[in-house]
Sequence to fold (150 residues):
Amino acid sequence: MTTKAQINEFIGHKTLGVVGVSRDTKKFGFMVFDELRKKGYKAYPVNPNATELHGEKCYPSITALPKDTEGVVIVVPPAKAEDLVKEAHTRGIDQVWLQQGAESKAAIAFCEQNKMNVVAGECVMMYLEPVGSFHGFHRFFRKIFGGMPK
Fold:
């Protein structure tokens, strides 16, 4: 179970790779990438099928990310997540956010066994201050009903 401390540790890192950024601006990977940039983060897009996305150099893999990368947000199907967290570990990145829908038990277990800070089952957009209207509304109701990490 993800804790508030794990979330705060992750979002305290300001240079992040976003794995699963799409050319389609309506896809969630792009939305996360765009929101991070709007909130002052340095966000590097990762997509093996592109060399540039949305005016930014795109990286084919986590291992290809610049050395200053402190963490990764993974926005891909769960079947791919385990290999990606292993790649992050190999690269020396120990901050991983498995976006809701990307988490798998195997990926989470690998992170925990390797002492990586892993956030899973949470939407990163609910924690990037100031939180936008839709995600702020969602967060408000989770607080009321006791669903926020402690």
